[in-house]
Amino acid sequence: MMSRGIIEKSTTLYRDLYNLSATENLANSIAPLLQKSDVIALYGELGAGKTSFARALIKKLGYKGEVPSPTFTLAQNYNLESVNVWHFDLYRILDPDELIELDIEEAMIQSVLLIEWPQRMDKCLPNNRLDIQLNYTENEESRSAIITGHGHWSSRLKKVSNEL
Length: 164
Fold this sequence. Notes:
There is one protein chain. By secondary structure, the chain is an alpha/beta fold. The chain has one domain (34-163): 3-Layer(aba) Sandwich (Rossmann fold). It has 4 helices and 7 strands. The chain has a 7-stranded mixed beta sheet, sandwiched between helices. The longest helix is centred in the N-terminal third of the chain and has 11 residues, at 20-30. The radius of gyration is 15 Å and the shape is globular. It starts with 9 loop residues before the first strand and ends with a helix.
């Protein structure tokens, strides 16, 4: 399995997402920053907006079709002109060893990865990644986002913090 060291640096931003459009705008702002082998780890309870974020980001990268949730398929691949994107939903993964069957390690080298329920990967998450934690708020329509850039994402996030 993947070997990962200690995360050395990180940058964290906090954002209020007052409605679905704000979540989509956050995804639209992050999409142009992406490059091959980037990993975005999407955390949050059921219904917190992880798939909505992923759907908006994939569409911003140029996908024209429907973007279904990969809850049952576990993975969806989008071979886009600018970059290949894998969208994983690991909710049903019970053991990190099951990731071998998904070829997630190979995908991590060749593509952008959007990973819902990344905590199922245990210690297999790469050091260089962008974590987005979506949380419910008191208002039923709004969410809050905690955006943390680890490794090289730390400096990338600092450069665009005012734009997110």
